[in-house]
Amino acid sequence: MSYNNVNRTIHTERLLLRLFIPSDAAAVTALCNNYNIYKNTLYLPYPYALKDALSWIEHHSANFNAGTSYEFAITDKVSGELYGAIALSSNQNFHNGELAYWIGEKFWGNGYATEAARAVLQFAFDEKKYHKVFARYFGSNPASGSVMRKIGMEQEGVLREHVRKEERYEDLVYYGMINLSWTNGSI
User: Fold this and answer.
1) CB 7 within 8 A of CB 61
2) With bands split at pLDDT 50, 70 and 90, how would you rate the model's confidence at 182?
3) What is the pLDDT of residues 54-94, one digit of tens each?
4) Is beta strand 132-138 parallel, antiparallel or unpaired with respect to 96-103?
């Protein structure tokens, strides 16, 4: 992983993580207007419209500059094709943040979420000097938990039936990693 502070990009073996730009809105809409993405996310609306994408992208640069959140487009390093998104929130008072991501369904199973998450975890610890990074997923979406385990996070607990999504209650499974784990080379 290499981070370019000037361009605010992260390069991995196969991916370029970069800030979203307004011209990404159509691709974001095409990927997010998908019931299978919606049912596994906390805040994504469905159906998902172009105005939703534009509104979401509008504040990314300001959030990045303010250090409140870092939202990256997950793109192919060569073609530039958009695969999904990954974000790292910042709780500056506690020196920690939450990792969140989604990948367009047609790109599932290629390891893009894991590769991007590993890079953003390194960004959090090496560049932003976070003490801890955590993530959460619906208990009904074990693939997301698999990504968290692959990048070295450990399960910290389950909030049973903590959120309501489509007339059903969902468990939220929490994973985390302390910076000390990262620097000791546990992954």
Assistant:
1) no
2) low
3) 999 999 999 999 999 999 999 999 999 999 999 999 998 99
4) parallel
**Token pair for residue 20?**
């979203």
Of 184, 186, 103, 174, the residue nearest 145 (C-alpha) = 174
What is d(CA 98, CA 33) in angstroms, rounded to the nearest whole number? Answer: 24
| Sign (positive or negative) of CA dihedral 133, 175, 108, 115 | positive
Query: Burial level of 153, CB count in 10 A (0-12/13-18/19+)?
Result: buried
Instruction: Print burial letters for 6-37: b (CB count within 10 Å at least 16), e (below 16).
Output: eebbbbbeebbbbbbeeebbebbbebbbbeeb
Residue-by-residue DSSP string for 124-178: IIIIS--SEEEEEEETT-HHHHHHHHHTT-EEEEEEEEEEEETTEEEEEEEEEEE
Token pair listed for 184: 């000791």
